[in-house]
Design a protein that fits this description.
The complex is a heterodimer of chains A (97) and B (680). With 97 residues, chain A is α/β, with parallel strands linked by helices. Chain A has 3 helices and 5 strands. The chains are: A alpha/beta (97), B alpha+beta (680).
Chain lengths: 97, 680
């Protein structure tokens, strides 16, 4: 199982890079774990890419797992009603506030 | 990939400057002691939108300042703070500060926030005082009543939100909007991921998610609208009150479970009518678009070319014969009327209501009257009157000068007014109306009027009038427009540096207009400015001098004369003159001015056209009159170079270039050459 570290900022500015990063991650195959503890800034564009990754994993029969999630990421996901889709429903915040 | 935000900055600045104008207007209506909620709401909305935009683009100084402003306005809105005169002035100053901060940001200059910081402190203090006096009683009430009293007033709103492609790149983030919504009350959000493409295929710059939400809040609908204000046009939004009857229905599924799930009921209920419940924000602007002025000018230019081509075709067709030639001519006549209409429509696009210039005066009058301790009421009429944008832009400064003059020199101090049997409050009026092919702008006041004796004395001191010369009233008033003339007993910083009125007249003359003064002692002064509606076309009289055709603007022509031999006489110092209605007119021989070979050199063989410019008259000696025609003015400066005495050029039907005479310039030129020749 590989763990992928997400950047500090997941916003529209980084969206194209993030898309490529997530695609590469997904292409590696197998079980996958995301580390979102370092995420300080996130917006709709960033979250949308995570949702797209989650759906892709789901379609392939995998789940999106999290090793850690920052409060900022958790709060933003909750605000847009994305906790369950992202598999963050029962995750406690950790790392960057 | 980085996003090019500059173009959105420009939109933000343009809209914010407009919004600030609206805010200023509303502030001026806000009289101390009365908190008109409509007015305060307008002001609040402006501060709120600017704060939102500035925050979005990272203009932190502006965002921080407008945030403080907004907090204060919120207190005003709730009635916890009453608008005092002091506060109103501070708010007006804050409009200036925001303006200058935005200009500085726009031009990438360092901004000076010292004044803003002072204001910000003042506002914070006012808010702190208000909440301090408020806190004690409010606390006890709150404990006792918060649950029963506020809960029933809570309304549940269903909000449906779908982004349009441009939403994210315009800097609007749904996350931020939902955060703000959550700040209003209890928010349940449901996402719909149906429209989300596969990770590999999706465009990360677009928002593919949709949301439906239920917000339970005691805040008014307008607070919800405000949140989405900046996204207007970039999203489909529906806001509807949750159906009455029964309790607020909690969503069946508290959250969507697996990604490709069907939309929740709320989403489908809200989605079918997104347009019906569109935000009312900016409803008035929805039917207008912003177009760069250069695009319109290009259009106008092209239409001008078409007019010329059309008249060339017309002249060509006049020589044809036969049945088909008749049909050709009929077609050309049709074309002519269509082109004429097209030209007028394009001109109208450039026309703007004069109100956009007038709108700066309430503030000016407010500031000056409080500074001078005078009571002044400003009356504005005819602000809907339309005039060409170029004219409009250039008329602002002269108008400011004239209004300042009225306030500074015209209107008396309240005590003096009462002593003169007038009401303590003076009135300054601004009127605009169309008159023929021109627009009249009239600035009048009910002040003390012009002091003729004083002006005359001053004119003599300055050597503008001979010691024994007897002047008529208009001639005396005309002295004011002479360079270097100032009647102010002591120059103030407002007016009276003596650089004013001659500049005012020059600006207006350059626009092809003129300015007149009339005054009655004790009753006030009226200044009438006449301006052409447009600078793009002119009604012209075609005149022939030798083989050349010149165009004289019709407005400058008084009449044309055929002289008997021997009427003209040579006068020392003035050259050749002819008698005309009790005065002597200098003769300007056009062929001499422009070095053209004329058909006749005898005055009696040609015609003398009496023209007027800058209040002076002269006789233009020409060979003959040709037709009258509306011509499209082509600028000499842009196409060739500036020539004294020539206002522009045009292309005539047969394809030749004809020069349009600048009569005031020509008269100045003639005076100069006469002086040279006579050696004075």
């Amino acid at each position: 199982m590989s763990t992928v570290m997400l950047g500090g900022s997941l916003t529209l500015r980084e969206a194209t890079d993030l898309q490529q990063q997530l695609l590469a991650t997904d292409a590696a195959g197998g079980e996958l774990e995301l580390d979102g503890s370092g995420v300080q800034r996130v917006d709709t564009a960033g979250l949308q890419l995570l949702v797209a990754l989650a759906r892709r994993r789901h379609a392939a029969g995998h789940r999106l797992r999290w090793s850690a999630v920052s409060a900022a990421l958790l709060q933003a996901s909750a605000r847009l009603g994305l906790l369950d889709i992202l598999g963050l429903g029962d995750v406690q915040p950790k790392g960057a506030a | 990939m980085s996003i090019e935000l500059d173009q959105f900055h420009e939109v933000f600045f343009a809209e914010s400057f407009e919004a600030l104008d609206a805010m200023e207007g509303a502030l001026l209506q806000l009289s101390p002691g009365t908190a008109d909620s409509e007015t305060i709401n307008t002001i609040f909305r402006v501060a709120h939108s600017i704060k939102g935009g500035a925050g979005m683009f990272g203009f932190n100084e502006i965002a921080s300042f407008t945030h403080t402003l907004e907090t204060l306005l919120d207190e005003l809105r709730s009635g916890r703070i009453q608008p005092t005169a002091q506060l109103c002035d501070a708010l007006l100053q804050s409009v200036d500060e925001v303006r200058s901060m935005m200009s500085a940001t726009q031009q990438h200059q360092v901004m000076d926030t010292s004044a803003a910081d002072v204001l910000q402190e003042l506002f914070k203090q006012a808010v702190a005082e208000a909440s301090a006096t408020d806190a004690a009683p409010a606390a006890t009430v709150a404990v006792a009543t918060v649950t029963p009293a506020i809960a029933p007033e809570r309304t549940a709103w269903r909000i449906g939100f779908r982004a349009l492609p441009e939403l994210l790149v315009r800097g609007n983030d749904p996350l931020r909007m939902f955060e703000e919504l959550a700040g209003l009350g209890e928010l349940e959000v449901h996402v719909e991921t149906e429209g989300l493409p596969d990770l590999e295929l999706l465009d990360p710059m677009q928002c593919h998610l949709q949301w439906s939400a239920v917000l339970k809040t005691s805040a008014p609908r307008s607070s919800i609208d405000l949140i989405f204000e900046w996204a207007e046009g970039d999203c489909e939004l529906s806001v509807a009150r949750q159906e009455e009857g029964g309790s607020v229905r909690a969503p069946e599924q508290p959250a969507v479970s697996s990604p490709p799930s069907p939309p929740v009921p709320q989403a489908s209920a809200a989605a079918p009518r997104p347009m019906a419940a569109r935000l009312p924000i900016g409803g008035g602007d929805a039917s207008s678009i912003r177009v760069g002025i250069e695009k319109i000018d290009e259009l106008l230019n092209t239409v001008g070319e078409i007019v010329i081509t059309q008249s060339m075709l017309g002249q060509l067709a006049a020589g044809f014969e036969g049945v088909r030639a008749d049909r050709l001519r009929a077609g050309l006549t049709q074309l002519e009327s269509n082109v004429r209409e097209l030209q007028e429509s394009v001109m109208r696009v450039r026309m703007l209501p004069v109100g956009s210039v007038f709108s700066r005066f309430p503030r000016l009058v407010h500031d000056l009257s409080s500074r001078l301790g005078k009571k002044i009421r400003l009356q504005i009429n005819g602000e809907q009157t339309e005039v060409d944008k170029t004219v409009l832009e250039k008329i602002g400064d002269p108008l400011v000068h004239l209004v300042r003059n009225s306030i500074d020199h015209g209107i008396e101090a309240p005590a003096d007014r009462v002593a003169a049997g007038k009401s303590a409050e003076g009135t300054v009026r601004l009127d605009a109306c169309h008159k023929g092919g021109a627009i009249n702008i009239i600035i009048s006041d009910d002040g003390k009027g012009l002091d003729k004796a004083h002006i005359l004395q001053k004119g003599r001191e300055k050597g503008l009038v001979g010691e024994s010369a007897v002047l008529s009233d208009p001639e005396i008033y005309d002295l004011i427009f002479q360079p270097g003339f100032s009647t102010a007993a002591q120059a103030t910083d407002l007016s009276g540096r003596g650089v004013g009125m001659d500049v005012v007249r020059r600006n207006i003359t350059e626009l092809g207009g003129n300015v007149e003064l009339s005054s009655a002692p004790g009753a006030g002064t009226t200044t009438t400015i006449t301006l052409p509606l447009t600078l793009a076309i002119v009604d012209g009289q075609l005149v022939a001098v030798g083989e050349e055709t010149y165009i004289v603007p019709l407005v400058a022509i008084v009449e044309s004369l055929q002289l008997r031999p021997g009427v003209a006489s040579q006068v020392y110092d003035h050259g050749e003159v002819i008698p005309f209605r009790g005065e002597y007119l200098p003769i300007i021989r056009l062929h001499e001015m422009f070095g053209v070979e004329p058909h006749s050199r005898e005055l009696s063989e040609g015609l003398v056209m009496v023209v007027e410019g800058d209040g002076r008259r002269a006789g233009l000696f020409i060979d003959k009159l040709l037709g009258q025609q509306q011509v499209v003015i082509k600028s000499m400066e842009t196409n060739y170079t500036r020539i004294e005495g020539i206002g522009g050029a045009t292309i005539l039907g047969e394809g030749t270039v004809s020069l349009i005479l600048d009569i005031p310039g020509l008269l100045r030129m003639a005076r100069a050459t006469t002086r040279l020749r006579t050696g004075t």
